[in-house]
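> call design_seq(struct)
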């Protein structure tokens, strides 16, 4: 195992792959350096003297400036680095400066999935109960319990989802709720759906239908609890019928062009941008080359790396949509008097992430090298094959749920700290370091830390892609699928009446 790792030849810092004690001699960039401080694993060490005000360079790009003079061999972190972010910017479309690739004609793969009449494919065949309003959460769970005898061998589960929204909401807040729920209703992992309303809520079922758009009335059914005497009995009878409909679907060979994967990270550390995130970027590249779709989100964690994505836009239209995506989210922060660079989180900092630019430059690597084909508003469903950007915050639960609503069959979630959360679609947890993978075996599905120990990224990608196809085919399950996935997290930005 290497002790420290310089990511780009132009970097003036390197990352400690393992903890390094003060006084240790380490080698990077063709030189031997005497370490001046104890450097935790994942944290940065100065490769040369860095003057006050000079850029700290990692991944070949500035991640901030030196707050004080930093001598060679010193620990480089929040105590001596400050972010350069903080304003709304003007951007110019410069595709010639981007590392972008037309990813086509790659090897074809297959998974055993559920083909749907609309041309999509699911990797699970579940019956979902989705409430329009939080008031009926308990009724939805009661219907889920009562309907279990109607589950067949071809149904992977019957699940009721819960959320606290759908009433006393105005404007965009209500629209966010409607779009989020409508996106889940259309997700191909759901073989059939019961939409459960109360009757007096703001989010009336007739309003929801306007947002849902076209749907198959045999697959999607509705119940207003105030309109029936016994809503649990009525709902259970409907789910019984829906189970009969969903049971017609059987697993069959599906081309990976039908697979949509969400890309997300959380609880990152200093190795995330060296191991797990580039690995997921390679998976995204392979999927897109095979005709599939990936969706990258966490807009605040694009700040500081946004031009890398903007210059990969397919054309000027997509470029302008990306600019709007970034600047509107900055304006959202500023409208509450918050700093644009308030990220990273305490866990990120403990893992070695110093500034938002540091986190963002590692985060966007999950998008690989593909051209950006489209930019989606929160709750929009992906229709363009290839790499899509999605409007959603960095919050793990909100972003993962947004990916599911946009049509992701599964989510690849990289982490250096670990997290047990689940969302409506299988969420594969990928550790950036071997310590975490060994310590939290009940959370982690795949160890990318082997890359820091010498495994070639291509070989790790081969293993991970095979695992993804196994999960998609139902031959195995992500660890998160054994945990409770009933709670939805929906973006909110407004008053509650």
């Amino acid at each position: 195992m290497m002790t420290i790792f310089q990511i780009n030849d132009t970097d003036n810092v390197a990352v400690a792959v393992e903890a390094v004690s003060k006084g240790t001699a380490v080698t990077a960039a063709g030189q031997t350096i005497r370490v001046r401080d104890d450097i935790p694993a994942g944290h940065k060490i100065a490769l040369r003297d860095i003057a006050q005000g000079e850029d700290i360079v990692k991944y070949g790009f500035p991640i901030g400036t030196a707050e004080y003079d930093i001598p060679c061999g010193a620990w480089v972190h929040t105590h001596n680095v400050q972010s350069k972010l903080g304003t709304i910017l003007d951007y110019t479309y410069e595709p010639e400066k981007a590392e972008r690739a037309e990813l086509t004609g790659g090897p074809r793969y297959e998974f055993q999935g559920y083909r749907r009449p609309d041309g999509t494919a699911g990797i699970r065949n579940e019956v979902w109960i989705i409430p329009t309003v939080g008031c009926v959460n308990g009724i939805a769970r009661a219907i889920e319990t009562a309907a279990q005898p109607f589950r067949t061998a071809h149904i992977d589960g019957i699940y009721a989802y819960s959320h606290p929204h759908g009433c006393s909401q105005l404007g965009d807040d209500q629209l966010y709720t409607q779009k989020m729920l409508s996106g889940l209703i259309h997700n191909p992992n759901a073989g059939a759906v019961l939409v459960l309303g109360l009757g007096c809520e703001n989010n009336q079922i007739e309003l929801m239908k306007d947002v849902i758009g076209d749907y198959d009335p045999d697959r999607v059914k509705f119940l207003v609890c105030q309109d029936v005497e016994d809503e649990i009995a009525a709902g259970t009878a409907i789910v019984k019928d829906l189970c009969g409909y969903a049971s017609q679907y059987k697993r069959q060979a599906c081309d990976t062009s039908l697979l949509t994967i969400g890309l997300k990270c959380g609880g990152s550390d200093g190795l995330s941008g060296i191991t797990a995130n580039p690995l997921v970027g390679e998976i995204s590249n392979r999927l897109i080359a095979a005709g599939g779709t990936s969706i990258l989100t966490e807009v605040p964690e694009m700040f500081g790396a946004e031009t890398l994505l903007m210059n990969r836009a397919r054309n000027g239209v997509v470029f302008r949509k990306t600019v709007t995506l970034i600047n509107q989210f900055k304006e959202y922060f500023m409208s509450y008097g918050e700093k644009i660079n308030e990220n990273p989180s305490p866990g990120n900092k403990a893992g070695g992430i110093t500034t938002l630019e540091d986190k963002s430059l590692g985060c966007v690597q999950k998008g690989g090298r593909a051209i950006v084909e489209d930019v989606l508003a929160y709750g929009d469903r992906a229709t363009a094959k290839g790499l899509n950007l999605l409007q959603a915050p960095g919050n793990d639960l909100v972003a993962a749920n947004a990916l599911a609503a946009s049509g992701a069959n599964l989510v690849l979630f990289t982490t250096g700290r670990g997290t047990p959360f689940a969302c409506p679609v299988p969420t594969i947890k990928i550790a950036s370091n071997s310590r975490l993978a060994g310590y939290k075996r009940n959370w982690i599905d795949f160890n990318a830390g082997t890359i820091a120990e010498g495994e070639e990224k291509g070989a790790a990608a081969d293993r991970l892609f095979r695992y993804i196809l196994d999960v998609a085919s139902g031959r195995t399950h992500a660890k998160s699928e054994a945990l409770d996935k009933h709670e939805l997290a929906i973006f909110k930005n407004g008053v509650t009446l």
